[in-house]
Amino acid sequence: MDKVQRILNFAMRMEKDAADFYSYYMDKVSSPATRELFHELVETEKQHYGFLKNKYDELGFSEPPLVISWVVDSNFAAKDPHILSINSEVAGDPDVEVSDLSIIRMAFLIESDFAEFYKNAIEVVVEPDAKNLLKTLADWEEQHKKMFQEKYQKLIKKYWSDISSIVFPE
Q: For the chain, what is the domain count?
């Protein structure tokens, strides 16, 4: 399989996984603003997938990409994964935005991984058009990463102001 084909194939899986993540947590976050953001990101990730799929098809790749949802079985999926429940109760008030902290952190890590993947992929392809495409995708994911990083830092500083300088040294 061609290297560009494998990169696009993997990228489509990542975008599908991200859409699934945001869709799953959209109704589980407490902040209406975060809920709306996740709704928008579901659509954005679907658009990214469609964009990549169009490129995949344009290049004449015949093997359809394998799409695997990160939620294996909706009957088995945890309603409140243990790691999230531990981290969400630190402020003692389940109605405050800090309950979204773990989910925002995971979203930041997802977008960080995407940006890093695309940046690394640029280095291994030789085709100028492929490099340009991957640069565009890396820029998109960097914007998402930065947005989640800022939101995460804002929540830490808001609810843990006394130790925020330890978490985010100047």
A: 1
